[in-house]
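re: ur question from yesterday

yeah so i grabbed the chain u mentioned. its 90 aa long if i counted rite. heres the sequnce exactly as i have it in my notes:
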Amino acid sequence: MTANDAGAVLAETMKMIVVLGGPPLLATLVVGVLVALFQAVTQINEASLSFIPKLLVLGATTMLLGSFMFATLSSYTLILFDRIVAIGAS
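ran it thru and got these structure tokens back, copy pasting raw so excuse formatting
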């Protein structure tokens, strides 16, 4: 494996991290900002008020996108295993 191959694998891994982690984190961020805005307007400073909605949105996002995330991760894992076998064969 050359340095270019290792760099390509690293770039694909970083892309996979963004693809799999981006949607749940983005949804949680949006809900967190909306709850913080609501707390600022109403002057309610309750810690569970910010935690519970984010937890629910994270769970819902994971349930909705779980099959996509699993399929993407499993296909990427198979590609990595194929590359490992190709390196061992050469």
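noticed a couple things. The chain has a mean pLDDT of 90. also The two ends are 10 Å apart (CA to CA).
anyway ttyl
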